[in-house]
Structure formats: structure tokens, C-alpha cells
Amino acid sequence: MKAFVLTLLLAAALSSARRVGDRAETAFLLLSPSPSRREKALTSRRMIDWEYFKTFGRKKTRREIFWDEMKKSIPKFKKLPRIQEYVKYASGQYGSMVPVVAPFHEPSTEFVPGLTAQPWWDPSQFPWISKLEENVETIQEELETALKNPGEFSFASDSAYSTTMGSGWSSIRLQRFGEWREENTAKFPKTTALLRDLNVPFAPRGVMFARQVPQTGVGRHSDGLNFILTLHLGLRVPKDLCSMKVGEEEWKKWEDGKSLVLDTSFVHETRNESPDSDRLVLIVDFWHPELTDEEREALQFVYFRGNQYDRKLIEGLQQPGGAVPQGSTARR
Can you tell me the distance from the alpha carbon of 179 to that of 174, in angstroms, rounded to the nearest whole number? Predict the structure, then answer.
């Protein structure tokens, strides 16, 4: 019992330290004397934070503006107790701490209480996953065909902004925040049609092909959102050389044609120990099965509005003299 309590305290301390470290990194980058260095180093989200700081100073944070608007926009929150609590956590009403329900569980303040939290889930719980596995050859063939024509598309890397993902991880996004990316889905019509036909309960984060190059791995991190589960379907995996660890569980290996389902609000990491072969998987983010349809609708609305705003702001920043749009819903 003492060991478990100590583990929970350590997890909470590490989570807090990461948040402090992230804020410190942002502050350092924002204070850099070189504008070009600052702009290259900041992610879009941090650039947005910086624009808000320049425009509003300390009068109101972006999160406060966003959640003030959300509370007015969604009267349904009053009828959904868990979403009401989610709003209180996400808007900062409860401060920065969230319940730690298991070792190495590190949910963000965008937290829905009362949901089962476990590192790994049994794929057989989700009928659409078995149907996806039955059609894995179609997905594999379409991806392999596309890889023979690399000039027509490219894997995008997050490594320019994140030491966690590292230089070896990259992706081709088919869907993001509920929107299908036509420039990519047009190159994978069979995969896209299959996913749509299966009525997958897509969550806001997205659908993608993910590549991990040889001798690299993704560092230990939590994605934070406890109301989303993630499917990894092995498409091309060097046998017995690629694995993932979630929470304090044992490492699990990807296999061609087989699925892994995890809760990425637990600390997790990956590795590809092959000397010369990429690991390719299909990743699908989907709703936690204990959310009701009404709760999913409310969360989808929040992320849709937030994404709308971020896109508008980023487009504005790309224009000469771009500034924060006034009178728009601000994202967290």
C-alpha cells in the first residue's frame, strides 16, 4: 500500500514538473533575442499564446476567454454532470491538479471524471477493430503502393518542435479534429472508405499512418486526454523488434495485422530496434466507450470550436502584420 501511495505521489510530482518545465521552456523561447529563432522554435500553440500575451497582457488568458464563451454557448453542460466537471477542470476552476487514479496515469486538466483508467484495453471489446483487421491487407497494399511514389506525398515530422517525439517519428494524417484531409485521403481511398463504412467512433485527435525509423523511439510522455483511446494497427513491423510500454506494464510488441489499444493519458514510450527497417502502423483515436452520445457531442463541439479559432489565428499570423482576431472564440 505504501509503495502504491509513493508511486502516486511520484507520478503527481513528475506531472507537475513537466508542466513547470514546459512553461519555463516557453518563457525562454519567447524571451529569445532572435525573432527567427523564436518563431522556428515555437509550436503553433505557443505562437498563439505569445500573440495573446502581446494583445491582452495579463488581463485574461486565452483559456479564460475560451471557457467564458463555452459556458455561454452550451447550456447542455448543465444536464451532463461529467461534462460540467470537465469544464471546471479544463477552465482552471480546480487549479492545475487532477485526480491520479493509477501509477503513471498523467491526465491533463482537460479531464472527464468517472471513466475507467487502464493502460491497455482488449481490442476484442470493439467490434469495428476486428473488421478493420479482416481488411488489413487492403490497407497494407494501398500504403505500400503509395510508398513507391514518395513524390506524391510525405510523412510530416513533429521533431522540429518536440524532443519527446524525436527525429524518427513522422505521420501522414488522414483526419484531424473530425475533418478528413482530402489531399491525403485522395491517395488512400480504400482505407478512407473502409474507416468511414465501419462507423468508427472517431475522437477529435485524428487518424494517421505513423512511421518510426530504425534505431529510434518516442520518449516517455502522456498525451493527457483521458476520454480518448488509441488504436495501433500493425501494417509493416520488423518482427519482434518494435514495442511499446504503457504505464508500468510490460513492453508489448506490434505485429503485422494485429491491433493494440491503449490509453495515452498514461505515460508511454516506443522503440524500433531494427537496424534497417521502418515500423509502419495505422493510428485511430476514438472515444472512451463509457462516454454517452451526449457527452461525445459536447466534447466534439468544444474541440471543433477550438480548432476553428486556432486555424483562423494561424492563418492571420501568416499574413504581413497578422494579429489576434478580435471577437472570436479563443482556444484553450
Answer: 9
DSSP β-bridge partners for residue 173: 208
What are the tens digits of pLDDT across the range 222-260? 999 999 999 999 999 999 999 999 999 999 999 999 999
In degrees, to the nearest 5, what angle opens at C-alpha 205 toward C-alphas 201 and 211?
105
Closest of 303, 239, 299 to residue 272, by C-alpha: 239
CB atoms within 10 A of CB 157: 17
Residue 271, Cβ neighbours under 10 Å: how many?
A: 18
Residues of the chain with pLDDT below 50 are 4-5, 7-8, 10-42, 159-161, 314, 317-318, 320-332
**Cα angle 241-245-251, degrees, rounded to a multiple of 5:** 55
Give the span between the Cα atoms of 129 and 116, in whole angstroms: 20
Nearest C-alpha neighbor of 19 from the set 87, 97, 121: 97
CB atoms within 10 A of CB 288: 22
The H or E element that residue 253 is part of is strand 252-253
Contact 237, 254 (CB under 8 A): yes
| Domains detected in the chain | 2-114+299-317 (no CATH), 120-287 (2.60.120.330)
Residue 58: partners with Cβ closer than 8 Å, 6 or more residues away: none
Residue 116 burial (C-beta neighbours within 10 Å; 0-12, 13-18, 19+)? exposed
Q: Give CA–CA dist 154/148, Å, rounded.
A: 12
Q: What is the pLDDT of residue 163?
A: 67
Kindly state the cell numbers that stand for 288: 472512451
The predicted structure's pLDDT at residue 179: 85
Residues 6+ apart with CB under 8 A from 268: 119, 218, 220, 221, 222, 244, 245, 246, 247, 262
Per-residue confidence (pLDDT) for residue 331, from 0 to 100: 36
Q: Which residue has the cell 516557453?
A: 26
> CA-based angle 226:227:229, to the nearest 5?
85
